[in-house]
Design brief:
This protein is of the alpha/beta class. Helices cover 42% and strands 15% of the residues. The strands form two sheets. It has a six-stranded parallel beta sheet with strand order 2-1-3-4-5-11, sandwiched between helices. Helix 5 (73-87) links the parallel strand 1 and strand 2 (92-97). Helix 1 (5-12) packs across helix 3 (31-44), helix 5 packs across helix 13 and helix 8 packs across helix 9. The longest helix is centred in the C-terminal third of the chain and has 18 residues, at 295-312. The protein is elongated, with a radius of gyration of 25 Å.
Length: 345
């Protein structure tokens, strides 16, 4: 039989109401009493009934995280970080997979499963501003990702343009001049791929160069096969690049496989930089230099913003926040070679 609130109260010599106040972190408990109750909780191994606590507040204690690709290592890492951050607020996370399809993103955003969740963190790909403005009710929402929305919801996103410029600046500093961009897209200019391509252009111009459109390769997707096809296309041209900046690590790793198959050395012949810092890139035969978003900070900020809205009972924000977590460039063998000390871990 489990330890009850009454057992803790008897052990600490206080009322059950006092134990409840300590468990729920109410401020009006003396330090000495709080310490005595906390010691009794520890001694007895008491675990609060979180379900009952949430129900008393008219909540479920569940938040949802909707991402486009759970099979993508970046989103898998992000989901793990969100689960850890939510646990700090005694919330459970329900994962949803939208496959990057607008109809599924609209369904999730406009209240699907609203009866079982307290709030939603959504990383959209195809969702439009009008879809968010049409969201008349539903639980609080926080947006992730780099698409830009003029809508009353908090938004957590890294600065893609600045991050891309950092990657290209690194390649230019190494003496590379024909820097390709793999992973361009044809859709809205608010897509992350367009923002990273913009950073590529800006940094090349800032260095005194002229962006070469023939070195920009669009891809159908963001996976290894897309990077491999894009790299093969460039190598079959008269003037191949001497460096590659890829939209993400999966594209970069696919490109590196083709370079190996063609007998080209990384980084001696062609240097490669990715984006996302997935674990696969760290353990590749030639470890991958990459832009590493602070995934733990992204998750923590998203959960904190959402819980704040849940507690305040405000699904929308009169003054929505756009918060930009940090990123680092992690220099590894695909640009600096073996035996060269990296400037970042």
């Amino acid at each position: 039989m489990g330890v009850s609130l009454k057992d803790v109260a008897q052990r600490a010599g206080v009322s059950m109401k006092t134990v409840s106040n300590v468990v729920n972190d109410y401020p009006y408990v003396s330090p000495a009493t709080r310490e005595r109750v906390q010691q009794a909780i520890k001694d007895l191994g008491y675990r609060p009934n979180l379900t009952a606590r949430h129900l008393r507040k008219g909540r479920t204690g569940i938040i949802a995280l909707a991402v486009p690709e759970l099979g993508n290592p970046y989103f898998a890492d992000l989901a793990s970080a969100v689960i850890d951050a939510a646990a700090q607020h005694d919330h459970t996370v329900l994962l949803d997979h939208t496959a990057g399809l607008r109809e599924k993103e609209v369904l999730v955003a406009q209240g699907f499963r609203a009866h079982i969740i307290d709030g939603l963190i959504l990383s959209p790909i195809q969702l439009e501003t009008e879809d968010l403005l049409a969201r008349l009710d539903g639980p609080p929402l926080v947006l992730l990702g780099e698409r830009e929305y003029d809508a009353p919801y908090d938004h957590i996103a890294i600065d893609n343009v600045a991050a891309a410029r950092t990657a290209v600046q690194h390649l230019i500093a190494l003496g590379r001049r024909r820097i390709a961009f793999l992973g361009a897209r044809q859709e809205s200019l608010r897509q992350p791929a367009h923002l990273r391509l913009r950073g590529w252009r800006e940094e090349i111009r800032a260095s005194g160069g002229t962006p070469d459109g023939s070195l920009v390769v669009a891809t159908d997707g963001y996976d290894h096969r897309d990077g491999a096809a894009a790299m093969a296309y460039l190598l079959d041209r008269a003037e191949p690049p001497d460096a590659v900046f890829a939209y993400n690590d999966l594209i970069a790793l696919g490109a590196m496989r083709v370079l190996f198959e063609r007998g080209l050395r990384v980084p001696e012949d062609i240097a490669v930089v990715g984006f996302d810092d997935i674990e696969e890139g760290r353990y590749a035969a030639v470890s991958l230099t990459t832009v590493a978003p602070d995934k733990a900070a992204i998750a923590r900020l998203a959960v904190d913003c959402l819980v704040e809205r849940i507690d305040a009972g405000t699904p929308t924000a009169a003054f929505p926040r756009r918060i930009l977590p940090g990123y680092t460039l992690v220099e590894r063998e695909s640009t600096i070679g073996r035996g060269t000390p990296a400037t970042h871990p």
